[in-house]
Design goal:
Length: 141
């Protein structure tokens, strides 16, 4: 029972982290798209959460490990296994003009507020694990 409870806590903790670390990108067709690589199968939790929090926007969330997709059409959400059509959405992403502007602004802000003499990589990775970095708008790898 304690092993099961530990798994539940680990899954819940990761879902809460991803609620803050998941970055949606605005595509030219008006849909928001996000990718992530979770340790646990939490796409269900995230799709439900973001459909309530961001109910006015259509979105797609891709779990790159399991190739499952969380879809929200503006009124209802679902999680489906990957298909070539869904995968193609993430192959040739065409960002909206606003997305490109906001992306540059976020990167400028992040670079501007960082103080080089106070940089602490160890602490940074404690608060923001490296495995999330490749999906964050504000960090260019």
């Amino acid at each position: 029972v304690s092993d099961f409870y530990a798994l539940v806590l680990k899954t819940d903790k990761e879902a809460q982290h991803m609620q803050g670390f998941l970055r949606f990108k605005s595509l030219s067709n008006g849909i928001l798209a996000a990718e992530y690589s979770p340790d646990n199968d939490i796409t269900h939790f995230l799709t439900s959460y973001f459909s309530r929090r961001n109910s006015e926007n259509k979105f797609i969330i891709r779990d790159t490990i399991r190739e499952v997709y969380g879809l929200y059409n503006g009124s209802e959400w679902t999680v489906v296994p990957g298909t070539p059509q869904l995968a193609s959405v993430f192959e040739d992403l065409v960002y909206s003009e606003k997305e490109l502007v906001f992306r540059d602004l976020w990167q400028q802000y992040y670079d501007t507020v960082s103080i080089a003499s106070r940089r602490n990589e160890r602490q940074r990775t404690q608060f923001m694990p490296r495995r999330y970095w490749k999906y964050l708008t504000e960090i260019v790898i």
